[in-house]
Amino acid sequence: MILIKSKKEIDYIAESCRIVAETLQLVKSKVKPGVTTEELDLIAEDYIRSSGGVPAFKGYSQPGTKPFPGSICASIDDEVVHGIPGRRILKEGEIISIDVGVLKNNYYGDAALSVGVGEISDLKKKLLDVTEKSLYEGISQAIVGNRIHDISYAVQNYVEANGFSIVKDLCGHGVGRFLHEDPSIPNYGIKGAGPKIKNGMTLAIEPMVNAGDWRVKTLDDGWTVVTADGLPSAHFEHTILVIGNRPEILTVA
């Protein structure tokens, strides 16, 4: 069931999203060679809690998985999503995806970005650029009168036109009262398919784009998703609100 949010609920979601956006920008500013993903995780958790929020990912579990141990997902190079923060040291030339979720006032916000560690290759620069732009292509279709897969089609069309591939095993989602709500928002699809987009929807749109093949696999830790061919992947995400028949991005600092 797709939940349409009231004005009060939207205000709560917007507050959680504000903290998400500020946390992402803070963590992004700390990304450099020599820093560990655990250090980035601690910076994020401290900021979230000091803002009155709770890290949404910490302790989160799905059927068959252990509780996620980090406050952020930190996914490097061929790690697509759900990378577990730890002692891994960032190296020049890598890219890292940082995914942040916040719970405050019993409502969630969720967003992600990818960034280079120092100087990165031209391929990785293009991958980051195309993935981020595909997110905005998708957001532009989140208007009343369209359907969810109009978002999906826009993302896929842009990504594939630029020579990259869409991860098909993972998708965006509704967000608000729960971290993951209906509808599912794949990053590939057919125009005119899926549920109708309505005012009051809050959606987490999140392209995950591979430099090589679209296929992925999950590591033995039960969380970290990596590209099957070992080539790099990028991830960008915003929580948006559909209001006044058009999308409003809530996760902007």
UniProtKB/TrEMBL annotation:
<keyword id="KW-0378">Hydrolase</keyword>
<keyword id="KW-0645">Protease</keyword>
<comment type="subunit">
    <text>Monomer.</text>
</comment>
<keyword id="KW-0031">Aminopeptidase</keyword>
<dbReference type="InterPro" id="IPR000994">
    <property type="entry name" value="Pept_M24"/>
</dbReference>
<comment type="function">
    <text>Removes the N-terminal methionine from nascent proteins. The N-terminal methionine is often cleaved when the second residue in the primary sequence is small and uncharged (Met-Ala-, Cys, Gly, Pro, Ser, Thr, or Val). Requires deformylation of the N(alpha)-formylated initiator methionine before it can be hydrolyzed.</text>
</comment>
<dbReference type="Pfam" id="PF00557">
    <property type="entry name" value="Peptidase_M24"/>
</dbReference>
<dbReference type="GO" id="GO:0004239">
    <property type="term" value="F:initiator methionyl aminopeptidase activity"/>
</dbReference>
<feature type="binding site">
    <location>
        <position position="99"/>
    </location>
    <ligand>
        <name>a divalent metal cation 1</name>
    </ligand>
</feature>
<feature type="binding site">
    <location>
        <position position="110"/>
    </location>
    <ligand>
        <name>a divalent metal cation 2</name>
    </ligand>
</feature>
<dbReference type="InterPro" id="IPR001714">
    <property type="entry name" value="Pept_M24_MAP"/>
</dbReference>
<feature type="binding site">
    <location>
        <position position="173"/>
    </location>
    <ligand>
        <name>a divalent metal cation 2</name>
    </ligand>
</feature>
<feature type="binding site">
    <location>
        <position position="206"/>
    </location>
    <ligand>
        <name>a divalent metal cation 2</name>
    </ligand>
</feature>
<dbReference type="InterPro" id="IPR002467">
    <property type="entry name" value="Pept_M24A_MAP1"/>
</dbReference>
<dbReference type="GO" id="GO:0005829">
    <property type="term" value="C:cytosol"/>
</dbReference>
<feature type="binding site">
    <location>
        <position position="237"/>
    </location>
    <ligand>
        <name>a divalent metal cation 2</name>
    </ligand>
</feature>
<keyword id="KW-0479">Metal-binding</keyword>
<feature type="binding site">
    <location>
        <position position="82"/>
    </location>
    <ligand>
        <name>substrate</name>
    </ligand>
</feature>
<feature type="domain" description="Peptidase M24">
    <location>
        <begin position="12"/>
        <end position="242"/>
    </location>
</feature>
<protein>
    <recommendedName>
        <fullName>Methionine aminopeptidase</fullName>
        <ecNumber>3.4.11.18</ecNumber>
    </recommendedName>
</protein>
<dbReference type="GO" id="GO:0046872">
    <property type="term" value="F:metal ion binding"/>
</dbReference>
<dbReference type="GO" id="GO:0070006">
    <property type="term" value="F:metalloaminopeptidase activity"/>
</dbReference>
<dbReference type="GO" id="GO:0006508">
    <property type="term" value="P:proteolysis"/>
</dbReference>
<feature type="binding site">
    <location>
        <position position="180"/>
    </location>
    <ligand>
        <name>substrate</name>
    </ligand>
</feature>
<feature type="binding site">
    <location>
        <position position="237"/>
    </location>
    <ligand>
        <name>a divalent metal cation 1</name>
    </ligand>
</feature>
<dbReference type="InterPro" id="IPR036005">
    <property type="entry name" value="Creatinase/aminopeptidase-like"/>
</dbReference>
<feature type="binding site">
    <location>
        <position position="110"/>
    </location>
    <ligand>
        <name>a divalent metal cation 1</name>
    </ligand>
</feature>
<comment type="similarity">
    <text>Belongs to the peptidase M24A family. Methionine aminopeptidase type 1 subfamily.</text>
</comment>
